[in-house]
Amino acid sequence: MTGPDPVLPPAELGRGPGFFRVRSGRGAREEGARAALIATISTLVFVLVAGLVIVNSPNWPKVRQQFFDPTAFREAWPDVLHGFWTDIKMFVIAMIAIPIIALVLAVARSFRGPAFFPLKALAIGFIDVMRGIPMILLILLLGFGVPALDISGVPSGAMFWGVTALTLSYAAYTAEIIRSGIDAVPESQRSSARAIGLTQGQALRYAILPQAVRNVIPALMNTVVSLQKDVALVSVLGVREAVREAQIYTANTFNYTSYLAATALFLAVSIPLVRVVDHLTKRDRARRMQVAV
Amino acid sequence: MSGGKLRVEGLVKRYGERLVLDGIDLAVDEHQVVCLIGPSGSGKSTLLRCVDLLEPIDGGRILLDGDDIAAPGANANAVRRRVGIVFQSFNLFPHMSILDNVTLGPRKVLKLDKADAEARAMELLDRLAVAEHAGKYPEQLSGGQQQRVALARSLVADPEILLLDEVTSALDPELVGEVLSAIRDLATDGMTIVMATHEMGFAREVADRIDFLHEGKVLESGPPSQVLKEPVEERTRQFLKRVIEAGRL
Question: Which of A78, A83, A200, B85 would disulfide-bridge A245, Cβ 3.0–4.6 Å?
């Protein structure tokens, strides 16, 4: 980072989480360079000390062989990478399905009036149950349970039910996030939407939801990051995604390096994703503060 | 009793245990301007919200052109098309441009196409002297400008009656005038208006009648000259005395 982010209002400067955030004004450049130097040195010292502690631990030679074996890494890599594509596919499918279901649930939950009670009760019941079941249990239940019923016309693939379980569980959480966004829109907005003659549905669609979703974008983005990792849970159904492939390799060779390969792949996607989320969150906060001023 | 346009009979409204409207009667003729005055909590806002069916009522009748609009089974959405309301806090939609704020109703409710809706909206924005801001967002406008846009938004559906709920109370003092003058123009053009307000000077000048509300009842009603100058009721006198002390009359 070479200078302060121009969108940030002055109060934000110097309060950011970055080590290298530079204050504006005279002498800022030297001060920034010094801060960067100190940060670099302390990081190096920390890594060095941590590394020495690990390398000198009594079982290090054994661990190195089992977890950090370059040959094993190369051997396991193609299968793990292939499995990771399956993870990405599941992630993308769930990412498309979740917002649709979540929106339906959130809207059903926030409808008012006795006529909508059954719809509302259904949505609340669904959300409560989905949020109450550990994700891995839901995956096991749907993944093994539904195919066992052998209903004709219903898909029986493990991946299909794994993704379905993920989608339903995440949709319930996402619906709650959207609902909190709906609740945060002032009641007066609903009044004025109804006052110009919009129906309850139109008021939600045109006046409330656009504001509600904007309110919760950071929370929604965090859900995306979390989903990207949770697809690995589908491995319990035997779906040959990255973690499963790594497990298979380990089972055949008693070497755990394949898990590191899977870890590297997940990190390669999740870290950039987290950065993007951070950036969006920061931008959103800056925008809000500017509006508040 | 008159009330050819709007007639409220024995309106009762409770919030839980609290009785907010205690059998209110109100009669408004076509082209009439009626100002509702009274202390905060006397029920002015609630009355207006009830007339626009934004609050369910607990008793009484609301007749618009003789139709009982609050009757069970009445189409509330259809009624709201006939009644315009503007709130104290503008309540423009912050995620939409000024023009979109005004055209949303016509396009979705009256099903006008985009060009027609925009032509109609621009005409009103022009009349309220905010046409130049059509492409901006509400947060870029001053309070007075936002409130005039809110007026345009409620007028664009061609309402039969306009309800104004303390529309200048949230404004900086120097912005009050521009909004009041817009309302004055509407009144001159023959709009039927019911207006809750603390602007006694404006009420005296524009109103055909002033109703003084106290604890959910209309305590005193009459032409401005009588209610403001020679109030009969002790409560009205006390209220006006405080208003004068505050420099608002």
Answer: A83
Decide the pairing of beta strands B33-37 and B193-196.
parallel
Report yes or no: B18 at the A interface, CB cutoff 8 Å.
Answer: no
SS3 annotation, B83-103: EEEECCCCCCCCCCCHHHHHH
Strands B161-165 and B83-86: parallel
* Cα atoms in the 13 Å half-sphere on the side-chain side of A261: 31
Q: Nearest-CA residue of chain B relative to A293?
A: B139
Which of A189, A195, A206 shows the shortest C-beta gap to B52?
A195
Q: Where is pLDDT greater, at A11 or B4?
A: B4
Q: Provide the H-helix boundaries in B5-113.
A: 44-51, 76-82, 98-108
pTM score? 0.79
Q: Any chain A CB within 8 A of the CB of B170?
A: no
Please list every residue in chain A whose beta carbon sits closer than 8 Å to the beta carbon of residue B94.
211
DSSP type of residue B109? T
Q: Which residues pair with residue B165 across a beta bridge? A: B196
Cβ-in-10-Å burial (0-12, 13-18, 19+) of A6 comes to: exposed
Do B91 and A194 make contact, defined as CB atoms within 8 angstroms? no
Q: What is the pLDDT of residues A226-285, one digit of tens each?
A: 999 999 999 999 889 999 999 999 999 888 989 999 999 999 999 998 898 888 888 877
pLDDT the model gives residue A57: 87
Subunit contact A202:B108, Cβ cutoff 8 A: yes
CA distance A191 to A198: 10
CB A239 within 8 A of CB A248: no
Predicted local distance difference test score (pLDDT) of residue A291: 57
| Under 8 Å between Cβ of A94 and A163 | yes
What stretches in chain B show pLDDT beneath 50? none
Vertex B143 angle, CA B141 and B148, to 5°: 85
* Residue A193 with chain B: CB contacts under 8 Å: 93
Q: Using the structure block, give the residue that is written with the tokens 């009842």.
A: B217
Residue A275 Cα, gap to closest chain B Cα (Å): 26
Strand partners, B19: B14
A197 vs B81, B89, B91: nearest CB: B81
Q: What is the CA radius of gyration of chain A?
A: 25
Closest residue by Cα to residue B94 from A218, A188, A102? A188
Q: Kindly give the pairing relationship between strand B209-214 and strand B193-196.
A: unpaired
Angstroms from A272 CA to nearest CA on chain B = 29
Residues recorded for chain A: 293
Cβ proximity of B6 and B51 under 8 Å: yes
Sheet of B217-222: strand order equals B83-86, B161-165, B193-196, B33-37, B209-214, B217-222
Q: What is the ipTM of this complex?
A: 0.87
- CA distance linking residue A229 with residue A87, whole number of Å: 9
Q: Which of A114, A109, A149 is nearest to A126 (CA)?
A: A109
- Distance between CA A73 and CA B140 in Å, rounded? 58
CA end-to-end span of chain A: 27
